[in-house]
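Chapter summary example: a protein plus LQZ7MJT6.
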Amino acid sequence: MSKGVELKNPNLKNMSSDYLYHLTINVANTVDASDIQQQFGDVKVVCMGGTSSRMRDLALYLRNVLGNSDTSEPIDLAAGGHRYALFKEGPVLLASHGVGSSTASVVLHELLKLLKYAKCQDPVIIRIGTCGGVGVAPGTVVVTKNAFNGYLRNEHEIPILGKRVVRPAYFPEQVIQDILKHGNRSEDGFDTIIANTMSTDCFYEGQGRIDGAVCEYDDAAKLEFLKECHKLGIRNIEMEATMLSSLTLQAGVKAADICVTIVNRLNGDQVEITPETKKAFEQRPFLIVGRYIQGLFGK
Ligand SMILES: O=P(O)(O)O[C@@H]1C[C@H](O)[C@@H](CO)O1
Ligand SMILES: O=c1cc[nH]c(=O)[nH]1
């Protein structure tokens, strides 16, 4: 049975209106948000990714998948906020989130509230990103199972009211399997795997790179750390998985994180693939998620 989004925030019911500031969406009447329901009530899937251009490309890609013949430029519904991009393609909402958990969590809070006010039924949120690989060939697509933080703990740690709050960080098995079954076709030419992900707050030192502006360890220490990651079943490193998994678990909304590796960190730190190859790699999660979405809507 499908269900709406019930958020764990008792304060929301005392708010007669709610301005989703970064999305520039005003929910003028939270009790009767029929305008919001009319515009967003059909949303079943929310795709998120770092950049607005990737989300625009994905919107156009999904247009085909959904059998929509529209050729107009996707409209950025959050353009007025100058922070994030928000597109809607039929029952799919697409939002950019910037780099890292702090920027991604801001837009995720607002998206979750939007799903609630719009009375969306049983939505799923999917991050479609890039990442560093740990012992896998560049171009491999990784669907995250457990998300580890930079302390190599399978949890999301966040300071709230001056206290350290620790929350679980994993993605629901059923969603992982539903996505994975659309990967590894003989024609794909790349592997799609399920693995654990390390999610850090820093691209450089936090991910054990030795090429940042500051570095107080050597290559041997870096490799030891990456091998420890590998032993924990970590095959990719990005910057949002712990936050995304923990916040969606708290909100009771299904989610997944599917990222393509653009460097094998056991071989180096620099991302050296050409922009063309990067663009081609970014299409790989599109393909898998496109098939998943096609499966959902039976087209
Ligand atoms: O979805 P993207 O490719 O933006 O995500 C990864 C993780 C960080 O946000 C960023 C670092 O370059 O790329
Ligand atoms: O190495 C990488 C590549 C992409 N994104 C990351 O966070 N790390």
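Key point: The chain has one domain: 10-297.
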